[in-house]
Here is the input.
Amino acid sequence: MRIIIGLGNPGDAYRGTRHNVGFETIDKLSHDLGIKLKNNRRFRAHVGEGRMGQAPVLLVKPQTYMNLSGHTAQAILAYYKLPPSDIIVVYDDISLPVGDIRVRERGSANGQKGMVNILAMLGTDEFPRVRIGIGNKPANWDLADYVLSRFAKPEWEAMIQGITKAGDAIAMILKEDTAAAMNEFNRRLKV
Here is the structure.
């Protein structure tokens, strides 16, 4: 089984914010795959079990708030007796333009608080992740205010495409491997 964890903050106040694109990706996968998400107190998350292509998956939205996402990841891996390499984490990245994605096999958190906690709780960076660009904050904005802001209308089309591409990248990781997804989705357009 592969565990697909989308990062975000629970509650209506955070729905549609830049920091919740990981949740939005899980919601889209849940809808597209017909996998119902249910509250799971043991994992402190909304989870849904099903299949993505031939692969059995567990879709996960931690309900611990972003900065404690590692608690959910650790609890799930311990319960299913799986190594960290069996998770795929999808989350927002301010260093990418809105809607762009990047797939990585491993790496640092690059300051993303949910990833900082996951890396600390798991003690490794050896798991794939899909980063979705939310755009860099304007110079006069506080970072926390920016990531908790909502997308402007002109950004939504790019964001919807980014969430769709993130789901496609996850499907490719499951069907082939992370290297194939990196090769397909990390290409930059030449101008």
